[in-house]
Amino acid sequence: MSKTEFTYELTQGFLPGHRACAGCGQASAVRLVMEVAGPQVVAANATGCLEVFSTPYPESAWGVPWVHSLFENAAAVAAGIEAALKHQGKLDDIGVLAFGGDGATLDIGFGPLSGMFERGHDVAYFCMDNEAYMNTGVQRSGSTPFAASTTTSPAGRESFGEDRPKKDLPAIAAAHGIPYVATGSISVFADLRRKVKKALSIRGPKYVQAHVPCPPGWGYDEKLSIEMGRLAVDCGLYPLVEWENGEVTRVRKIKPIPVEEYLKPQRRFRHLFRSEDGKAQIAKIQELADANIEKYGLLE
Amino acid sequence: MRKMIEGSQAVAEAVGLCRPGVISAYPITPQTHIVEELSQMVADGEIEAEYVRVESEHSAASVCLGAVAAGSRAYSATTSQGLMLMAEVLFNIAGMRLPMVITGVNRALSAPLSIWNDQQDTLAVRDSGWLQLYAENNQEVLDMHIQAYKITEDDRVLLPVMVCMDGFVLTHTYETVDVPTQEEVDAFLPPYDPLYKLDPSDPYTMGAFAGPELYQEIRFEIQRDALASKDVVKEAARDFQAAFGRWMGDVVDAYRCEGADTVYVAMGSVIGTLKDWVDIRREKGDKIGVLKVRCFRPFPLDELRESLANAKRVVVLEKAVSVGAYGILPGEVRAALCGQPNQPSVHAAVTGLGGRDITFDTFDEMEERSQAGEMDFFAGLRQELLEAS
Ligand SMILES: Cc1ncc(C[n+]2csc(CCOP(=O)(O)OP(=O)(O)O)c2C)c(N)n1
Ligand code: SF4
Ligand SMILES: [Mg+2]
């Protein structure tokens, strides 16, 4: 066998050949999750890029049972699957996963997600955070970072783009007192893998939010995806944190770099580098990063 | 066993006898007694279902969707605003061909806010792909739920069924109903054994998206199977009769329509009042009958044509308004009879909105106005209020 030959078993959870863009962070993150999860799982998926690029009928990239219903109800559908498996006495053998984008999770599906947490379903929910509604053409979501230009929070003569910071859903999830919450990044692969593994080893509701760069949505060269995610973590804008039963139990330390290094290569922040006022916005972004560093004690 | 129980309890008993694996619902008047009753039955260990106490009707329907996809029998109940909030999921469940039953308690829609009965809510989701059965009384309510599971899970159908019952008029009324035994229901309704389910040993992808080259055929199949499900609805009624010795009616049912020049067409509990009124008018020598539409989806086209073949005048009573147009059931009855030999005139009478009582006076008014040739009108309006405004 030559070195470049790959064989994929059909039992594998997430198969190649799907239609994600080159450099799609969430395609890699989902593959990671599915490799860790193994074949004894059922997955529910919200409407969004992942659902669209993985299941154009009659094709499917999913090697495990998978269901898509609507944009906002993946957590409720997963809860229904869990309830059914419980009734059938199969919950000890089969894990229930849910996938949603940041829009599906933080915005339109927030109520069902909170309900699923609060009722204590044995479901591992993975939010693929690419920081906008990518599937519909890069509109802002509650997860879009401050000053990012999107198609509905565009930079313009009177605007620096998104005027609000990201919604802190991991903290809100943790406030439900659920057993496990974590933020991860596809660019810090081993860390994300460990968190997925940990989440799947725990009974009850789990929430893992993975930062997943999106080349067309953020506007950078697709070969830089992993680099983009790494810079976000290293500047403090995407703190990698774990909560257990509502308490922070572990953070990933960093040697902070200036936020400009992360912002500069991305088209969504390009406008900030074109004026003095833009620099003032960059200073505000630096303050957000500094606040994260302070809040979670990220300094090495 | 014959029991004197509330309509809501009759629903709960029927649902319990059908052994759902998952029940999920969100409370809303006048559906509340149904879900309270089921909660108690679960709490007392009388039924073994998982009861998922969701945060909205949208999630109730979504939980049921997930449960059925995973291979369990599921149940929900709602009404009015709750049904509207569910609407997105209802279309989705039908499109995914997931069999389940919900009780669509009939209540008016806001605004103005009203908790009282009409049928605007379930009629608003008539195009969702759900089969819709409308019950006249609580025995029918009970029997219909058992039949509904039989219909929805039939491989020829695989479309969800909504059992529609008038809020308060049926849900909160005590009547004597015959409750079958568990053994009887088990013999009639085998355990749910789906063709496809979410099972790691045989993985399926459910809910994929379809492009323009496929979507239309998939929708066509839904329409084809929904139309053909009429035979299964009839079959379920016949099988039910064979099993339980009770005939609760066909897709339409005629009452005193022999030799009738005028036939009143309606759905739900108002049929009982109409029958009493027709008895009185018949005594006076008026040739009037009643046609009950028990199965609204699939639409009983041939049966309506046949039943109304000799009528000269048809009055369709509707507890809803297709605002800006000319009625939902009346419009469909008109379309069904259009071009038929000796086509009767079809009059649309909107009444009973938001719990307005429908009395013999209302029918007398409908009779007078349709005789005078009025085609589309509201009956039982308080003219003095309209004049004052
Ligand atoms: C009720 C409803 N509203 C809007 C949409 C349109 N819609 C589909 S996917 C999507 C955005 C998805 O964004 P996100 O959840 O962040 O996932 P991504 O595509 O970015 O991975 C939107 C707005 C929809 N499908 N349903
Ligand atoms: S738009 Fe972004 S999230 Fe969507 S498939 Fe492409 S890279 Fe992935
Ligand atoms: Mg997104």
Account of the protein in words:
The complex is a heterodimer of chains A (300) and B (389). Helix content of chain A is 37%, strand content 16%. Chain A has 300 residues and is an alpha/beta fold. Chain A has one domain: 3-Layer(aba) Sandwich (Rossmann fold), CATH 3.40.50.970. In chain A, α2 links the parallel β1 and β2. Chain A is globular, with a radius of gyration of 19 Å. In chain A, 55% of the residues are buried. By secondary structure, chain B is an alpha/beta fold. Chain B folds into two domains: 243 residues, Rossmann fold (3-Layer(aba) Sandwich), CATH 3.40.50.970; 135 residues, Rossmann fold. Helix content of chain B is 40%, strand content 19%. Chain B has 13 helices and 16 strands. In chain B, strands 3-2-4-5-7-6-13 form a seven-stranded mixed beta sheet, with helices on both faces. A six-stranded mixed beta sheet of chain B has the order 10-12-11-14-15-16, sandwiched between helices. In chain B, α1 packs across α2. The longest helix of chain B is centred in the middle third of the chain and has 30 residues. The mean pLDDT of chain B is 97. The interface between A and B is large, with 45 and 44 residues. β2 of chain A pairs parallel with β9 of chain B. The site of iron/sulfur cluster has 12 residues of chain A, from α2 and α8.
Topology summary:
The complex is a heterodimer of chains A (300) and B (389).
Chain A: H1 25-37, E1 41-45, H2 49-54, E2 66-68, H3 74-87, E3 95-101, H4 102-108, H5 110-119, E4 123-129, E5 155-156, E6 159-160, H6 169-175, E7 180-185, H7 189-201, E8 206-211, H8 215-219, H9 225-234, E9 241-244, E10 247-251, H10 259-263, H11 276-296
Parallel strand pairs in A: 1-2, 1-3, 3-4, 4-8, 7-8
Antiparallel strand pairs in A: 5-6, 7-9, 9-10
Chain B: E1 2-6, H1 7-17, E2 22-25, H2 32-43, E3 50-53, H3 57-69, E4 74-79, H4 80-95, E5 101-106, H5 120-124, E6 131-134, H6 138-152, E7 161-166, E8 174-178, H7 182-188, E9 205-206, H8 215-244, E10 252-255, E11 262-266, H9 270-283, E12 288-293, E13 295-297, H10 301-307, E14 313-318, H11 329-337, E15 345-350, H12 360-371, E16 376-378, H13 383-388
Parallel strand pairs in B: 2-3, 2-4, 4-5, 5-7, 6-7, 11-12, 11-14, 14-15, 15-16
Antiparallel strand pairs in B: 1-8, 6-13, 10-12
Helix pairs in contact in B: 1-2, 1-6, 3-4, 6-8
Bound molecules: thiamine diphosphate (TPP), iron/sulfur cluster and magnesium ion.
Iron/sulfur cluster (SF4) is lined by residues 20-21, 24, 26, 49, 53, 130, 134, 214-217 of chain A.
